[in-house]
Write a structure and sequence with these properties.
This protein is 44% helix and 15% strand. The chain is globular. The protein has helices at 6-11, 28-36, 50-59, 71-74, 79-85, 100-108, 120-128, 150-164, 179-187, 197-200, 209-217, 228-233, 249-254, 258-263, 265-278, 301-321, and strands at residues 17-19, 42-44, 66-70, 91-95, 112-117, 133-137, 143-145, 169-173, 193-195, 223-226, 242-246. The chain is of the alpha/beta class and 324 residues long. The chain is built from 16 helices and eleven strands. It has two domains: 6-207 and 296-321, Aldolase class I (TIM Barrel, Alpha-Beta Barrel), CATH 3.20.20.70; 209-278, no CATH class. Helix 7 packs parallel to helix 8 and helix 9 crosses helix 16 (301-321).
């Protein structure tokens, strides 16, 4: 059995699996590996480092990959979009902000417009901008996100998109690390999945080796949503977004004391930068989802893609066998 969906047809891929464009983690080598394995790799544009993006697109070689941006950050440096579009990405994903100012340029360049959303209002705004793929991101996801859980959010947005823009489609994200998650997303009406944390813990990921090891050892109970890492890194994230990360000593000291941290941010920022340089993840952030319980190894990305597809096929067959 092969999983064929509107997503695989739209993007010309073998498996309905997209790599989440994790900033600083999803580089060109990882994106290329996911694409080579039959999914679609997205380079993480993050906060918009032009030199880093050029280098990572070069690392991807001639592979068919896409890119993702934090929309509110891109709005501060709109010229960066043209720089990335010059690399002819297969798709361009925008998250956390109004996609309208960039949508026409993306479509004119021949890239598929993907918009990640966390609620109904954002979905309608993305559809008005002409988004062809809506990523419904649940709060279980690692990194930044909203407040809705994946299980109820995905079918709600599937119905909404079907009513408002039948040619568009929904992809599920948040807490998906194995084929059971992919199978569940398909039964909820999604056309595929966007996967982050599982690929964070992969051979080609740009994450620090010590950070990868912590993800493998972690439990979903040991994650939390917080703003303290944005405060100490100097990023002014708009409300209501928070970031899900592995809890560490820094969290124990400052989570729930955000005003105190902001008052001492100059000194704390120096300590934090030193910790990052030293690979000290008792202080430095590791953004990871609740699905870390399902991650117990560090395989190549190709193995992850193959597992997701094979496990989803088995899960769907098993579920069908229970029908009487």
């Amino acid at each position: 059995m092969t999983l064929r969906t509107r997503l695989t047809e739209k993007l010309g891929i073998a498996h309905p699996i997209l790599l989440a464009p994790m900033g600083g983690v999803a580089g060109g080598r990882l994106a290329a590996a996911v694409t080579d394995a039959g999914g679609l790799g997205l380079v993480g544009g993050g906060y918009g480092d032009a030199a880093w993006l050029d280098r990572e697109f070069e690392a991807a070689g001639n592979r068919r990959v896409g890119c993702g941006f934090i929309t509110w950050s891109l709005a501060k440096n709109p010229a960066l979009l043209d720089r990335v579009l010059a690399h002819t990405p297969a798709a361009l994903m925008l998250s956390f902000g109004d996609p309208a100012p960039f949508a026409d340029r993306i479509r004119a360049a021949g890239s598929v417009l993907i918009c990640q959303v966390q609620d109904r209002e954002q979905t309608l705004r993305a559809l008005d901008a002409g988004a062809e793929i809506i990523v419904a991101q649940g709060t279980e996801a690692g990194g930044h996100g909203g407040a809705r859980a994946t299980l109820p959010l995905v079918p709600a947005l599937v119905d909404l998109v079907a009513q408002r823009a039948p040619d568009a489609m929904v992809v599920a994200a948040g807490g998906i690390a194995d084929g059971r998650g992919l199978a569940a997303a398909l039964t909820l009406g999604a056309e595929g999945v966007l996967v982050g944390t599982r690929f964070y813990a992969s051979t080609e990921s740009l994450a620090h080796d010590l950070a990868k090891a912590r993800v493998v050892a972690a439990s979903g109970d040991g994650t939390l949503r917080t703003t303290i890492f944005d405060i100490v890194r100097g990023y002014d994230w708009p409300k209501p977004y928070t970031g899900r990360a592995l809890s560490n000593i820094f969290c124990g000291r400052w989570h729930g004391k955000e005003a105190d941290l902001a008052a001492r941010v100059t000194d704390e920022m120096k300590r934090y930068k030193a910790a990052v340089e030293a690979g000290d993840f008792s202080t430095a952030v590791i953004f990871a989802g609740e699905d870390v319980d399902l991650i117990d190894d560090l395989p190549p990305a190709a193995s992850i893609v193959a597992r997701l597809a094979q496990e989803a096929e088995r899960a769907l067959q098993s579920a069908a066998s229970r029908l009487t």
